[in-house]
Amino acid sequence: MSGRYLAWRLFLVVPTVAGILVVGFVLVHLAPGDPVQALAGEHGDAEYYAFMRARFGLDQPLLAQFATFAANLLTGDFGRSFIQGRPAFDLVAERLPATLLLISASLALASVVGIALGIVAGSRPGGVRDLAVSGTTLALYAAPVFWIGQLVILLVAVPVGWLPVQGMTSPGSTSTGLAHALDVGRHLLLPALVLASQEVAAIARLTRTGLATELASDHVRTARAKGVAEWQVVGRHALRRALLPVVTVVGGRTGHLVAGTVVIETVFGWPGLGRLLVTSVGSGDRPVLLAIFAVAALAVVVVNLVTDLVYVRLDPRIRYR
Fold first, then answer.
1. % of residues, the chain, pLDDT over 70
2. Could you give the domains of the chain?
3. Which DSSP helix (H) or strand (E) runs through 242?
């Protein structure tokens, strides 16, 4: 990858995120519901409603509101939360680490387990292992993630008893260091597994298809004819090329994972951006919603750039100019 291409992609980050924020601003302000009524109640005094709209700048025309938003955004100011009265970005920054932890753990689990299952199925296409893995992953891919979450709670967490189903840490816990990390890990296990379930299915099926195709190619037959060990044939000659479309899927479905956290964090009481998004939508807290949109847009753009870098690493023949 040339430095010129990388510089160009980094330069495009700003207008891309800005464009997403413009679309988000319009959608948030055109959405039904009145944030003032959500805050003050439906049967409040008309003068108080007018006072609150003037306080938040909601009495201004949409273009004037956008001009104020754009001017403040240049200084990194998304405004103050209508509900909590704190800077919107501060609220997002407090919840961001929990969501990043959940997404990172889910993506790591999905990648490792999905590729492993894909290798098991694709190394012997049409066999018993292939049929078992393909059937299981198809069922996982078809099942709604919130339904899987409820099943996991009812059939695994409750009977077993030692896997918590709510929050990020135990109530009243004051542990630090390793004890704190283990406590967070116990709370993280179930939501990460549920969030990763559909990604495991997608990655496994794509790895299986790519590997089966590569194992039937000429260069693999040549390697086998030379007496190369089967594990080397699969790992060095077939799997590396089969992983190229998998990298595309992993990078492209990051937005899907971000959307999935909304459901998972609600089901498992995980204190991340997903729960904050739900409460902000319900209360019409526009500054917080726009701050969340900005973070999500930036994350997706950066992941796409990283995907291009990994592409070059997997296949040196690929060059971006």
1. 90
2. 36-77 (no CATH), 93-314 (1.10.3720.10)
3. helix 240-252
